[in-house]
């Protein structure tokens, strides 16, 4: 297991030596103006680590090698397709890391062999919409900023490589071709479809047959911020352990203010599943917050305040001691309350009512039995979301059945409370 170190790879392919640069055994660190303090602190450790693994690093000071940096597109990214990878690695073994880097190299080779460089992201999407996976790349003008390691990473996991889905994500991530964004938030997006999981024999994110209805966005900001939080097991562990972990509450709250992305938060002491059989996010509209936490048979399903512009239905379901809370949100103030509440649940290991007078108000969590709540939620799913697809006789059966189950549920709750 590694401590927190910097692992950087830059591969460019708009020069004559593009095949040489694609060698997955070589990792490039580009830096400029002697301002790469991160390099000074970590480069020796990284070089030793790679040497022990028979890997090599090429460290390039762009002040002394300006032509090389210009040729590879690092200095300014002059309208060419360049992949730049910058990740801080926390407690991840080299085998997993190598799998990812090999994937990057393989995909880039596919990208180069089958494509021309793209002037716009729309061109890239059009070319890769029907492939097993694609890489969407956008750069910053680091010559002006002189800080190569201020990188943004976005990872998107979507069901299948269909053009409509890709363009939907393209729109959701606000990647419209806008010169103002060129120096703003987006560096690149990876698409990991199920073919990638099969290729590398990595278990899919969930054993649920509906797992592919879930989208994950992992947003990691500039390195200085990442050094402080030291929690970057997020996406890597999700691939192998079927879970997402963000163990720093302040980071979690900060990230959640970016309302276009999905995140998971979980107590690092617990081992919970991100996805449950109800695949709630299939029904969400707009940016969706999915939160995973541990509790003891605690459930909530209720209508949220419509004035808050959230989902009409919000509920938590227990599955083997884990829970999922789903809500659309656009108001950052909700984040702190949710984090605080979830922390209380995790610490106490039992049901704790929500506090009144907050952005999210409710009567609290009601303990119920698994079978009852499962049936109720299945009926909610069928009636609310699939009702329009049913024939009238089935609709009447569902309505009658739901009324019976709800009445039994009310009686069960009454008996439990008494």
Structural descriptors:
disordered N terminus; 418 residues; 5-stranded antiparallel sheet; alpha+beta
Structural description of this entry:
This protein has 14 helices and 13 strands. It is α+β, with helices and mostly antiparallel strands. It has a domain of 48 residues. The strands form four sheets. A five-stranded antiparallel β-sheet has the order 9-12-11-10-13. Strands 5-7-6-8 form a four-stranded mixed β-sheet. The termini are far apart. This is Thioredoxin-like superfamily. It comes from Hexamita inflata. Keywords: Membrane, Transmembrane, Transmembrane helix. InterPro entries: Thioredoxin-like_sf.
Average per-residue pLDDT, rounded, comes to 35
* Intertermini distance: 52 Å
The major β-sheet equals: 5 strands, antiparallel
Strand order of the largest sheet: 9-12-11-10-13
Helix content: 25-40%
β-strand percent reads 15-25%
Rg over C-alpha atoms, rounded to the nearest angstrom: 24 Å
The total strand number stands at: 13
How many helices? The count is 14
Order of helices and strands: EHEHEHEHHEHEHEHEHHHEEEEHEHH
Keywords: Membrane, Transmembrane, Transmembrane helix
Transmembrane segments: 396-415
InterPro entries: Thioredoxin-like_sf
Protein name: Thioredoxin-like superfamily
């Amino acid at each position: 297991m590694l401590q927190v170190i910097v692992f950087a790879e830059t591969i460019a392919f708009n020069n004559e030596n593009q095949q040489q640069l694609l060698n997955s055994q070589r990792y490039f660190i580009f830096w400029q103006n002697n301002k790469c303090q991160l390099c000074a602190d970590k480069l020796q450790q990284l070089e030793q680590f790679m040497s022990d693994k028979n890997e090599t690093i090429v460290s390039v000071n762009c002040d002394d090698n300006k032509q090389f940096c210009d040729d590879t597109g690092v200095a300014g990214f002059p309208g060419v397709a360049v992949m730049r990878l910058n990740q801080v690695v926390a407690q991840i073994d080299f085998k997993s890391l190598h799998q990812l880097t090999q994937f990057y190299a393989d995909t880039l080779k596919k990208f180069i062999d089958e494509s021309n460089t793209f002037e716009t992201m729309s061109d890239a999407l059009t070319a890769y919409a029907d492939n097993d996976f694609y890489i969407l790349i956008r750069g910053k003008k680091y010559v002006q900023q002189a800080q190569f390691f201020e990188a943004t990473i976005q990872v998107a996991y979507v069901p299948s490589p269909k053009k409509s889905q890709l363009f939907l994500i393209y729109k959701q991530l606000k990647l419209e071709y806008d010169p103002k964004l060129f120096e703003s938030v987006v560096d690149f997006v990876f698409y990991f479809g199920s073919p990638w999981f099969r290729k590398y024999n990595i278990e899919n994110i969930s054993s649920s047959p509906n797992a592919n209805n879930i989208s994950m966005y992992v947003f990691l900001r500039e390195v200085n911020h990442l050094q402080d939080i030291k929690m970057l097991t997020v996406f890597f562990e999700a691939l192998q352990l079927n879970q997402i972990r963000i163990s720093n509450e302040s980071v979690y709250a900060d990230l959640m203010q970016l309302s276009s992305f999905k995140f998971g938060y979980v107590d690092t002491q617990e081992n919970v599943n991100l996805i449950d059989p109800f695949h709630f996010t299939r029904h969400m509209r707009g940016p969706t917050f999915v939160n995973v936490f541990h509790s003891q048979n605690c459930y909530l399903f209720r209508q949220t305040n419509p004035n808050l512009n959230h989902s009409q239905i919000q509920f938590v379901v227990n599955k083997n001691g884990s829970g999922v809370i789903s809500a659309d949100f656009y108001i950052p103030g909700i984040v702190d309350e949710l984090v605080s509440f979830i922390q209380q649940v995790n610490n106490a290991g039992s049901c704790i009512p929500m506090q009144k007078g907050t952005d999210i108000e409710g009567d609290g969590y009601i303990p119920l039995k698994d079978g009852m709540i499962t049936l109720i939620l299945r009926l909610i799913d069928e009636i609310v979301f699939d009702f329009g697809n049913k024939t009238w006789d089935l609709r009447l059966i569902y309505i009658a059945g739901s009324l019976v189950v709800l009445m039994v549920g009310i009686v069960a709750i009454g008996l439990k409370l008494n």
